[in-house]
Amino acid sequence: MKVHYINILLFALPLNILVTLYHEHNKNKPYITPHHTYTNRSLCECDLYIPNYDNDAQMKEVMENFNKQTQQRFHEYDERMKTTRQKCKDQCDKEIQKIILKDKLEKELTEKFATLHTDIQSDAFPTCVCEKSIADKMEKGCLRCGYGLGTVAPTVGLFGSVVIGAWKNAALKAAAKYAMEQGAAKGAIAGAEAGVDAVISGLTNEFGVLTLGVEPLGSVINVTNYMKVSFISEKIYSHYSTTCTPSMVGYRLVGDFNLRDPFCKLVMKPSLAASRGEGIGPRPAEFIETTVKRVVAEGTKAAAEETTEVTTSQTALLKAKNIAAVEATTTPYYTPIIVSIVAIVIIVLIMVIIYLILRYRRKKKMKKKLQYIKLLEE
Fold it and tell me: Which residues cross the membrane (predicted)?
């Protein structure tokens, strides 16, 4: 205010000088109409700072107007400054709050990002507090359950199938061994029977006999002696001696050689030919033994062939039958394992689907939280 007053007084001094010079210039000119001279308010240089205009109404009016305008401008300036100060204060408060929140968030995120859980705990923002929800617990539970069951499923399938496979292989080996043993036994029986039949048939064809003494060939020759040449030769020679040669009673022979019997004629024919000078023929015992050897060899060959054939066929048949029995026995054991594995796989799939859904929801929430944090940082 003092500065404005000084400016006004300094402006009045040159004005007063100009007016004085004007009157001095025009006081000797009669044609100029004299005017009323107003009270001079000029100030001398020594009275420059003396308030000698306190009783001047115009000066008071100017000063009052000036004061009013100045006060109004100061008042407007104060109002604008209040608004500006308030804005600055609000901005500063926001910046301070952001810095505080950023520090807290950085600290919380540093601690919680290791477990992928952002728990924003702040007294200023109670709505940002994130705790472990049921969805998070279920997500971890589904993950653990799926991991456990996913590990159990191949384990059950592996160990179950390995155990059953090992037991099945052992059973198949035992079945094959049993089939071979049974096939060999049945082949031996069938071969012996075939050998007996071949020997009986050969003796019948060679000697033309169906009985030895009073016994039929089938009761004399069996599976235990059909390959014994000496036994069969003795039996046939005994039959020859009884049927074809005279019997010894006391010290003399009773009867004559029976040449009407085909058997006797066949056995004695080589001897009779030798007696007529046709060479040296074998005696009846040698002839019988030679013929029996040939018949027994053919019977043994037929027995071996029959044994091999029956053994092969019966072994294959019994092996197939035993393998089918083993398969039929082990197949029901595979069904529970397969059902268990399928059930476990289905449960694992359900757990994985639930885990993926919960994980997607959690990531969505995390994305929103990060966007919110980014918005706060901006």
Answer: 5-23, 333-358
Tell whether the torsion through CA atoms of 160, 166, 170 and 172 is positive or negative: positive
User: What is d(CA 295, CA 145) in angstroms, rounded to the nearest whole number?
Assistant: 81
Distance of CA 139 to the CA centre of its chain: 19
Element (H, E) at 48: none
Closest CA to 344 of 165, 162, 160, 167: 160
Residue 266: pLDDT band by 50, 70, 90 thresholds? Answer: confident
Q: How many domains does the chain have?
A: 1
Q: pLDDT tens-digit profile of 143-157?
A: 666 555 555 555 555
Q: Which one-letter DSSP state was computed for residue 5?
A: H
Residue from 98, 113, 107, 110 nearest 374 by CA:
98
Residue 206 inside a domain? The answer is yes
Across-strand partners of 212?
A: 215
CA atoms of 251 and 255, how far apart (whole Å): 13
User: Quick check: pTM over 0.90?
Assistant: no
Is residue 92 one of the residues assigned to a domain?
no
Can you read off the two tokens belonging to residue 141?
A: 């539970």
In a domain, 367, yes or no: no
Q: Give a yes or no: residue 29 inside a domain.
A: no
Structural domain of 319: 178-329
To 5 degrees, how large is the angle CA 192–CA 197–CA 201? 145
At residue 31, the pLDDT reads 44
What is the distance in angstroms between the CA of the first residue and the CA of the last residue of the chain? 47
